[in-house]
Write a structure and sequence with these properties.
Blueprint: E1 2-5, E2 11-15, E3 23-24, E4 27-28, H1 30-42, E5 46-50, H2 57-75
Parallel strand pairs: 2-5
Antiparallel strand pairs: 1-5, 3-4
Length: 92
């Protein structure tokens, strides 16, 4: 699962998975978390991953990138239900 909030406040969480191997091919699995952390802070977004299942690091990493792409696409689409930026700031 991946959730993206383009809120202007960076935060990153990755729950539910520890990589089993130090690398997938020539790619260091330690860089996955570092990459998404850096994207989160550079873009000032909240980015949350929850890995529900998986044993093969390659497939888990692939799923993370695909889920991130879909979540980011959804977060940047115009929602016809709103005329303005949807926010609860100041109303709760």
């Amino acid at each position: 699962l991946c959730a993206v909030d383009l809120c202007g406040r960076p935060y990153f969480v990755m729950d539910g998975y520890d990589f089993h191997t130090p690398s997938v091919g020539a790619f260091d699995t330690q860089l996955v978390k570092e990459f998404f952390y850096s994207v989160s802070y550079a873009a000032a977004m909240n980015l949350h991953f929850r890995i529900l299942s998986g044993e093969n690091d390659h497939h888990v990493i692939e799923g993370m990138f695909k889920a991130f792409g879909k979540a980011l696409d959804m977060a940047t689409q115009k929602d016809p239900r709103y005329d303005d930026v949807p926010s609860t700031k100041g109303s709760l």
